TrEMBL record:
Species assigned in the record: Croceibacterium mercuriale
Membrane-spanning ranges: 364-387
Signal peptide: none
Keywords: Acyltransferase, Membrane, Transferase, Transmembrane, Transmembrane helix, Tricarboxylic acid cycle
Pathway linked to the protein: Carbohydrate metabolism; tricarboxylic acid cycle; isocitrate from oxaloacetate: step 1/2
GO cellular component: cytoplasm
Catalytic reaction(s) noted: oxaloacetate + acetyl-CoA + H2O = citrate + CoA + H(+)
UniProt xrefs under NCBIfam families: cit_synth_I, PRK05614.1
Matches recorded under SUPFAM superfamilies: Citrate synthase
Molecular-function annotations in GO: citrate synthase activity
Entry's Gene Ontology BP terms: tricarboxylic acid cycle
Gene field: gltA
Protein name: Citrate synthase
Family: Belongs to the citrate synthase family.
Keyword Transferase: yes
Length: 428
């Protein structure tokens, strides 16, 4: 806590408000006592200027295009680390030693199977259900199957449920995919890496031995790292808000998945590739740029713009490079990549996008890679949810272990009718 204070004047009366300082980033005016002192609330829909919590996990400098997990730059983690290592880092605060990483990886791999009855749960969904709908349902249902890890006051329960969530999410995601294409579920194989196992469960079939291509495994692992956590975004805040009431972690994660599904958030990767395919060829780009700028047209450039980044999203930089690596490894080409590159070039030289500081975000190129690997667009947000689970879990743990944690309960500016008498229906 810094010594400096912010001063608020209301009707001539001055109120001192403490100013808090983080390790980096903007200072924060502490308004917790504002209502008691002044009888007033603050108004900030969308939390554009409001910090909802303290957190030591992830830091973003949106102006500079910086993203750090526990202090480590995302570019370094994506190029040099692994998803398991980043998961350990997010959960525990420090990079693991080789032994700690082995132990953590082993523990996660021992929780990958789903209760057999849960496998039957899938049969209740329509064959053409969106896999995100299945994810929401199945993850929420986990709390009905793993009662022995839902006491949130017990650190051991929290540890086990965290491991279960990280471990089971690839199995749940792969099963959602298999269900949608009518193929048998594949069981996890603990000899494979976290990401290799996910690929095996998704693309393998019982009739053949599935060979995990190292370049695809590495690209997928990078994509998971890039999505692992992202500070107090909408789905993470949803998980925290749900968790603040004491709800069990499986229910909280289902809430996070529901929030992530929206096209302004995780659903943008699906929407971005669909948009690029609709644009089709570079000559049609100017028309779509004009549409994105037209305030009477609801069309937006999907995969562009961000609440926090007013510079190039550092995750998009890695994504763009990974597209080339995957294309090379799989010996594929997709004209949609050329369209994406040209769209980026044209948008970044257009005054509208320059003035509003709209740059490609993580979702702009991710769909191109995922499609080259073989995922249908409906699986894109599922992959985001799979990778973000560790972030949600780490943030949820941070919140629950904080002794100052209270239930989240925003206030409002009421604009409805003032008190009036009920009129019986015959007299209306
Ligand atoms: N295309 C065209 N105009 C845009 C776009 C876009 N993609 N994004 C923002 N704008 C305009 C917007 O119309 C507004 O203009 P004005 O000031 O004239 O009203 C201005 O830029 C500011 O936009 P905003 O909607 O007030 O900003 P926000 O911080 O509330 O929204 C956003 C951020 C990500 C929802 C928005 O940029 C957007 O809808 N982008 C497309 C969807 C997308 O790619 N989402 C993925 C985000 S990254 C992954 C994740 O977090 O899940």
């Amino acid at each position: 806590m810094a010594d400096n204070q912010a001063k608020l004047t209301v009707d001539g009366a001055g109120f001192d408000l403490p100013v808090m300082q983080g390790t980096t980033g903007p200072d924060v005016v502490d308004i917790r006592k504002l209502y008691g002192q002044t009888g007033m609330f603050t108004f900030d829909p969308g939390y554009k200027s409001t910090a909802s919590c303290e957190s030591a996990l992830t830091y973003i400098d949106g102006e500079e295009g910086v993203l750090l997990h526990r202090g480590y730059p995302i570019g370094q983690l994506a190029e040099q680390s692994s998803f398991m290592e980043v998961s350990y880092l997010l959960l525990n605060g420090e990079l693991p030693t080789a032994d700690e990483l082995d132990k953590f990886t082993y523990t996660i791999s021992r929780h990958t199977m789903l209760h057999e009855q849960l496998a039957r749960f899938y049969q209740g969904f329509r064959r053409d259900a969106h896999p995100m709908a299945i994810m929401c349902g199945v993850v929420g249902a986990l709390s009905a199957f793993y009662h022995d890890s839902t006491d949130i006051a017990d650190p051991e329960h929290r540890r086990i449920s965290s491991h279960r969530l990280i471990a089971k999410m690839p199995t749940i995601a792969a099963m959602a995919y298999k269900y949608s294409i009518g193929q048998p579920f594949m069981q996890p194989k603990n000899s494979l890496s976290y990401t290799g196992n996910f690929l095996q469960m998704t693309f393998g079939v019982p009739a053949e031995e599935y060979e995990v291509l190292p370049a695809v495994e590495r690209a997928m692992d990078k994509i998971f790292i890039l999505h692992a956590d992202h500070e107090q975004n909408a789905s993470t805040s949803t998980v925290r808000l749900a968790g603040s009431s004491g709800a069990n972690p499986f229910a909280c994660m289902a809430a996070g998945i529901a929030c992530l599904w929206g096209p302004a958030h995780g659903g943008a990767n699906e929407a971005a590739l669909e948009m690029l395919r609709e644009i089709g060829t570079p000559d049609r780009i100017p028309h779509y740029i004009e549409r994105a700028k037209d305030k009477n047209d609801p069309f937006r450039l999907m995969g562009f713009g961000h609440r926090v980044y007013k510079n190039y999203d550092p995750r998009a930089t890695v994504m763009q490079k990974t597209v080339r690596e995957v294309f090379e490894a799989l010996n594929v080409q997709d004209p949609v990549f050329e369209t994406a590159l040209r769209l980026e070039e044209l948008a970044l030289s257009d005054d509208y996008f320059i003035e509003k500081k709209l740059f490609p975000n993580v979702d702009f190129y991710s769909g191109v890679i995922l499609s080259a690997i073989g995922f249908p667009t409906t699986m894109f947000t599922v992959l985001f949810a799979l990778a973000r689970t560790v972030g949600w879990v780490a943030q949820w743990n941070e919140m629950i272990s904080d002794p100052a944690q209270v239930i989240g309960r925003p206030r409002q500016l009421y604009t409805g009718p003032t008190e009036r008498d009920y009129v019986p229906v015959a007299q209306r």
